[in-house]
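Journal club prep — side note

Before the paper discussion, L.F. wants everyone to see what a predicted structure for a comparable chain looks like in token form. Sequence:
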Amino acid sequence: MTQPIEDYALIGDLMTSGLVGRDGSIDWLCLPRFDSAASFAALLGDEENGHWRIAPKGAAEGERCTRRAYAEGTLVLESFWETDEGTVKVTDFMPQRDTAPDVMRIVEGISGRVTVTSVLRLRFDYGHVVPWVRRSEGDRVAVAGPDSAWFRSEPPVRTWGEDNSTRSEFTVGPGEQVAFVLTWHPSHEPRPDRVDPYQALRQSLADWREWSGTCTYEGPYRDAVLRSLITLKALTYAPTGGIVAAATTSLPEELGGVRNWDYRYCWLRDSTLTLGALLSTGYLDEARAWRHWLLRAVAGDPADLQIMYGIAGERRIPETDLPWLRGYASSAPVRVGNAAVDQLQLDVYGEVLDSLHLARATGLASERHAWKIQLALLDFLEHNWQRPDEGLWEVRGPRRHFVHSKVMAWVAADRAVRTLEADPAVPGDVERWRTIRDEVHADVCENGFDAERGTFTQYYGSRELDAATLLIPRVGFLPPDDPRVIGTVDAVRAELGSSGLVRRYSTEGPSVDGLPGDEGAFLACSFWLADALHLTGREKEARALFERLLETCNDVGLLAEEYDPVACRQLGNFPQAFSHVGLVNTAITLAGGAPTGRRPAP
């Protein structure tokens, strides 16, 4: 039985993460990193591809817990099961690791006496490899090739093997607890030290609350903002500061369709908006780490700049299919890696330059070599901004002159001008970049604007629209009161609207992206619409849209990439960093401020 995407909650240790369903099953877990092969892959297949369910004995397949929530200010999940025999609580978390990743699940009796079962099916390599399981030192150890995992309980409970799974059964009364610990490590290394799960829980609660307690945002919708910030933190790879776009691969943009992509990497498109959200809410360390990751990733020949990188800055992300997985809700293929890494997307140059300008403008200590990297990127862009590209949305159709790409080329030139104007000691030819900025601006206004309809289009010569043009006033290309901006906002809202939300672009007829099928409303774009409505003076409509978007969050405050407003279901990879960044920035805007990084029009 396929659980709705919104039935999942996130746990993680700042190096990887897992998804826990409302039925008590962990159906997705990559070890030891976000981009590692999954050890539980039932999310994209079935139970035989790996999962770990803890639930009261007799709970039917797909039966859900009574209620659940994160412990306040944390990523520690508490799920309650109310049965005829009594009530139990299951606490799921991953403590920040010392050496090895641990998944911990603590079952606690609340009332009555409840018998609980645990069914663990480890399947390494995305559900493809069944490990050999044996007993050792009173615990279970599973080994297959490079992977090994130890499984134990405290206090020990009866455990046995059945149908290629490890099963346990026990009874708890009020105040009684049983903790399970699953620890992964390379099979050629010695077993890592055991970690006390009860102490680890106390420490995890304290660590998360200390972190969330430093949030400086005190405006409306604070709970939703803080939950989004915790999610962004959870999607951060602590050793490098990189933030993955999502915790999953291949969750579909259309159920049963082929729009299934791997999002466990770091996109440059997210950089400015993410940096602005972190800086605006007091998380300077995270912003600084993200900026450092960005500088390391883009270092090198500007012609080789990629749209995305691995979590440590890796450049090679080859795309392959996993034919043994049927896909979520039979949405195949299941993909690992992302071929879009090889695309030309000129907008990323503007996004990188905007991010580094934002970091400088907000007082983050600058790197001595950062400006040299920016100059190299600018030199490349000067000779290449006129080229067609695949655009922000990574279309797999022909290259085109996408309006958003040209606008972001203007942003790159504009930020160079602003930097040189603010600090004449910085080396550079400000007149040269003023000239280029004016050339790009004139080119976009002449070729990317449909005067008949009063709107910017998706690409030069087209009548199609693109929700990315909602960012034109935000980046400062035109002021919000410009009739061309107002016309674009109205046109996007009318033509790309979907039950009050917004799609990225039209997928009807011969689609620009070269793919069959449809997709849902894109949540980040819907937040951009709320921002644009606010900027153009329609405060009431902006707030109504934002509150409509909050209703698309699941019961624990998480957002996927897209939403089907007809079926009322989340779609796409989950949870999606871009969606949560949009939530944070729009909340700040509606609170009467502006997210750090918004640029006034020249």
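L.F.'s comment for the group: The mean pLDDT is 94. Keep this in mind when we get to the figures.
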